[in-house]
Amino acid sequence: MTQTDTLEHHGFQAEVARLLHLMVHSVYSEREIFLREIISNASDACDKLRYAALTDSELLEPGNKDFAITVTADATARTLTIADNGIGMTHQELIDNLGTIARSGTSAFMQELSGDERKDVNLIGQFGVGFYSVFMVADRVEVTSRRAGAEETWIWESAGTGEFTLRPGARDHRGTSIVLHIKEDATEFLEEVRLRTIIKTYSDHVAVPIILSTNAGESDASQVNTGAALWTRAKSDITEQQYKEFYHHVAHAMDDPAMTLHYRAEGTLEYNVLLYVPTRQPFDLFDPARKSRVKLFVKRVFIADDCETMLPPYLRFLRGVIDSEDLPLNISREMLQNNPVLAKMQKAVTNRVISEFEKKALSDPDGFNAIWDSFGAVIKEGIYEDFERRDQILKLARFHSTTESGWVTLDQYVARMKPDQTAIYVLTADNLEAARRSPHLEGFRAKGVEVLLMVDPVDDFWLTGVNDFAGKPIKSVTRGGSDLAGIKGADEKKSDPAPAGMTELIAALKDHLKDVVKDVRSTDRLKESPVCLVADDGDMDMHIARLLQQNKQLGNMNPRILELNPEHPLIRALAARAKQDGALDALEDAGHLLLDQARILEGETLPDPTDFTRRLTAVMARAFG
Predict the structure, then answer these.
(1) Which pTM value belongs to this model?
(2) Are residues 56 and 202 in the same domain?
């Protein structure tokens, strides 16, 4: 940064500069969303001041207590001004909010950019880009802001290129004014009819009056929006389009909601609820903080937009508003943590959300499956976090399967179990492709036994706390015995008898591998692969053990069991060799190579690649020497 007199020059953060370049050169067809974004920000600024004034009434200046957003079009000067009397911004807040990317959503937007401008412009319609959308219609922007309670006013200015400037300014009262110098190809946004249509379409629900004026004076100023909090109105009075636009406002999102839940609770507690399930994953869905993004209001006064106790973390993808009639208006964020009224509301709202999910799953299975596509990995966190609703969430849960192409529920799985099958079989893996390639599935496929494929990290954790479903134990196919001998397959091929020398081969491998495996045994779970590794019944599942080890939460894993496929030609050949003289020494390299092969099949890194290469070279040399 350099400073000449009182004019400060700042460079944009690299990600912002890239985004601005895209905006400046955008030919996006729905450029009018810029006005929705700016009005939404202005509404938020008024909400924040209304809350702050609960504890500091002096922030509401005399004669300026009624909140409003004013949109003024001046066709002669080619400017569009959006002004509010909300909380305003300080010098540093202007830098932080307009010069850098603070929201994880915008950062995620940047990660989606490919470098191909034509493709990237199309992404504008899929992601909320907030303030920066003004550069689709303006070639220069001035933001004048004065923080409530402060004396200083600052002017932020940029042409959407590589830098912005800051200089002291003058403003009679708190709030922010944004002046857009409209591009020549965007003069439609100076026309009264066009502006009125945009405001009615996108911002009619905003609970702050929006005043439109088409000249620099106030003679023709009039309120455009309804100005009533949408969530307090009867459902019959709200159109689908109004619901959608309120979702865009409250979620700062561009997609349409996949599900809308609107009701009023009356009785011991009274509150209004308007919640949405997004179609696409919010950008902060997997943020470690796992905060709720539902806005909490008390008697239409904004209190918080990230209240941790409003909803459980596994429902953090929900967006919307909960407005309480019972909480005190002067409640602080600290008091929210252990407030009994809020705790009762959370329980009731969570029950209602789960109940609505159950109804959706029955009435619109495809619609619920689409929701599960986006948010199933998060909802499943409730299986181990929310004991009270565990059974409900388990019934809602969907999984991939070895026999079905779509989602499978546990109820559907149990209904299809084979007559002799006593357990629900599952396999955990890093991704679906890796799961389907697992050698552990070979024997189950051969007998037509369905296995559920668990590929979300959360699966490893909830499975440790859930032992059964509908009275059927849940068993990992990578742990313990396969149980396949007791299950009759429809077109089962009779297994070949164990080859001669199998006992001797197992004894030799046990001797050579005694320090690195728990046991060596024959198995019926393999049909195509020669070997695999499994965990013992009492040990931790291999996949979760690897995850914990990778995150340095586990030391060395317990030694595992090496299983051999007695029908595989390689194992048969080694069994035959095991009966010959000198077999013990001859099988040493083969034993370690089999173990390394099993590790590779599990997607593991070999502990000693040099040793593996040496042994493989020696075996090949003997074979072809």
Answers:
(1) 0.75
(2) yes
